[in-house]
Write a structure and sequence with these properties.
mainly alpha; Growth Hormone, Chain: A; disordered N terminus; transmembrane helix; MFS transporter; transport; transmembrane; membrane
Length: 415
């Protein structure tokens, strides 16, 4: 037996953290990784524009997406490092670098140092995307099977919470107190967010003992999954219709007369209802229907509601209350779909390379989102909002067909 495997086998019996402690741990970890995403995509653009730069300069924030799209490339070395040093040491080391990066950003406001702050934001997201690989590995190994649904609901809620704080929360601080105080608060937040892990009985031993069973994790070993092609196809396609609708909805609402503040509040409302739907619909659905059937049911229900924007466009005039209610309902079932699909990918991932397998599925989702966002803009320009929303809604039927074909071909830990 390989030395690394032997060490893993001998340390596993020491793991003794409680289930509630493990749920709290992934909530904190995913929350921490959601904060820089929220800062980059929901706050930084407004900060750049407020600093006097052009709208074109706002597009530079897209560079922060690259680490999240490409993190699968270094997922194997990260898992190997965790097996060598233990997850707690790796997490706290990278967290120290994250806090240091936040402190370094203090003297570089976007108004005076645009390219420097963009580079530092990309570095911040690179560090957090790397941490996300570790969190994925921990989540897969600790929660595969019947606990996967609850774990993924907590993952989604934690990540959304981080995005809300990093986006709207920090933007409010910035508007009132300026860049220096905002970055100082961010550094303090990132410094304390992992401290509760020290208070969870046995968590350090549990995390240190939770490593891949393979002696060495390599990206090319992903090909050992005979059903890899079906998993990749499902990961690329499952969010296509939802991304297309949400991307087109932003300019559509602007043209309907809504301002940026109203659209921002709607987005925050939608995120909250996604988290609620994941917990209140997704988890019971997994419990009573099983993973495959739960995915199919959630996909059907969310697909039917992808026509929300088309129906509002067809009506012509609608109130803010109707808008909020319609998208809240759509978001509830999207949240249920997210929990069921990520529970599926968690139960699909191999214990030999859990972080790598799960991370590859996340990156595929990101690439699928990029394709959907790129296509729907051209369709909206060419055919108008009504027809573009109708095409996006129709694509949900295609996604459902792909899902129905892929599901029976996937090999899961918990069938």
């Amino acid at each position: 037996m390989d030395t690394m495997t032997t060490q893993t086998a001998t340390t596993r019996p020491q793991a003794s953290s409680s289930p509630s402690g493990e749920y709290l741990a992934i909530a904190l970890m995913y929350f921490a990784q959601g904060v820089p995403i929220g800062l980059a995509f929901n706050a930084l653009g407004a900060m750049i524009r407020h600093g006097g730069h052009s709208v074109a300069a706002v597009g530079l924030t897209g560079l922060a997406f690259l680490p999240w799209a490409l993190k699968f490339l270094w997922s194997g070395p990260v898992e190997n490092a965790c097996a060598r040093w233990g997850m707690p040491r790796f997490l706290w080391s990278t967290q120290a670098m994250i806090v240091a990066t936040c402190l370094v950003m203090i003297p570089f406001p976007p108004s005076a140092s645009l390219y420097t702050v963009i580079a530092l934001i990309v570095l911040l997201n690179l560090l957090c995307a790397t941490q996300d690989i570790v969190t994925n590995s921990y989540a897969v190994l600790r929660f595969q099977g019947r606990r996967a649904g609850a774990a993924n609901a907590i993952q989604i809620a934690g990540f959304i919470g981080g995005m809300l704080i990093g986006g709207g929360g920090l933007l409010q601080v910035y508007s009132s107190l300026g860049w220096t105080v905002t970055m100082l608060i961010l550094a303090i937040l990132m410094a304390v967010v992992y401290l509760p892990l020290l208070l969870i009985p046995g968590w350090r031993n549990t995390a240190a003992a939770t490593t891949a069973t393979a002696s060495r994790v390599r990206l090319r070993d992903l090909a050992k999954h005979r059903d890899l092609g079906w998993a990749l196809l499902l990961a690329l396609s499952f969010k296509f219709a939802g991304t297309a609708v949400s991307t087109l909805a932003q300019p559509w609402l602007l043209d309907k007369g809504f301002d940026l503040e109203q659209i921002g509040r709607l987005q925050m409302s939608n995120l909250v209802f996604v988290a609620i739907g994941g917990a209140c619909i997704g988890i019971p659905l997994l419990r009573y229907a099983g993973n495959r059937r739960a995915v199919l049911v959630a996909m059907i229900l969310s697909g039917l509601l992808m026509g929300t924007a088309w129906m509002l466009q067809f009506l012509g005039a609608f109130s803010s209350m109707a808008l909020y209610a319609a998208f809240a309902l759509q978001s509830l079932f999207e949240g249920a779909m997210f929990v069921t699909i990520w529970a599926l990918f968690m139960n699909w991932s191999s214990k030999d390379r859990p972080g790598t397998d799960f991370t590859v599925m996340q990156c595929c989702e990101g690439f699928g989102n990029a394709i959907a966002a790129g296509m729907i803009g051209g369709l909206g320009q060419a055919y108008g909002y009504g027809d573009a929303f109708a095409i996006a809604w129709a694509s949900a039927a295609g996604v459902l067909l792909i899902t129905a074909i892929c599901l029976p071909r996937l090999q899961l830990v918990d069938k």
